[in-house]
């Protein structure tokens, strides 16, 4: 296999981080918030200008598999996110035992930004 040889060059470093998360969808958002809350200097890089991934950008407005018929089975940042979304009226929780939760994508976008900012996550959007 042939090799490509590049000449030496100086490349400016834009920042120094303990954790860099690529993708601001639900998993990337939660990973960045968790890392930052844990004390890591964290950068979250997102292609678009909003967080939430397909859930917000494509308006897939339902969280599924959140209940096992007896109790909610999500915890941690996901549980906190859902509780905060409910508190601000950004969701329709059909009943206590519902297996899914329908949400307003704009409410999710703002809550993702709010939680990331509160945690001290640095954002690089449109990248």
UniProtKB/TrEMBL annotation:
- Is Metal-binding among the key words of this record? yes
One Pfam family this sequence matches: FAD_oxidored
Q: Keywords for this entry?
A: 4Fe-4S, Iron, Iron-sulfur, Metal-binding, Oxidoreductase
Write the signal peptide boundaries. none
UniProt-listed Gene3D superfamilies: FAD/NAD(P)-binding domain
List the molecular function annotations (GO) for this entry. Answer: 4 iron, 4 sulfur cluster binding; metal ion binding; oxidoreductase activity
Report the SUPFAM superfamilies cross-referenced here: FAD/NAD(P)-binding domain
InterPro entries for the chain: FAD/NAD-bd_sf, HdrA-like
The cross-references to PANTHER family, in alphabetical order and at most eight, read: COB--COM HETERODISULFIDE REDUCTASE IRON-SULFUR SUBUNIT A, FERREDOXIN:COB-COM HETERODISULFIDE REDUCTASE SUBUNIT A
Indicate what this protein is called per its UniProt record: FAD-dependent oxidoreductase
């Amino acid at each position: 296999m042939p090799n490509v040889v590049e000449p030496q060059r100086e490349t400016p470093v834009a920042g120094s981080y303990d954790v860099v998360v690529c993708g601001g969808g639900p998993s990337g958002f939660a990973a960045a918030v968790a890392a930052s809350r844990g004390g890591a200097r964290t950068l979250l890089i997102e292609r678009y200008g909003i967080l939430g991934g397909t859930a917000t950008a494509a308006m897939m407005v339902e969280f599924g598999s959140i209940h096992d018929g007896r109790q909610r089975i999500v915890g941690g940042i996901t549980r906190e996110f859902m509780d905060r979304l409910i508190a601000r009226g950004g969701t329709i929780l059909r009943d206590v035992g519902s297996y899914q939760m329908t949400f307003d994508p704009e409410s999710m976008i703002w809550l993702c930004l709010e939680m990331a900012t509160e945690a001290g996550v640095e954002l690089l959007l449109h990248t």
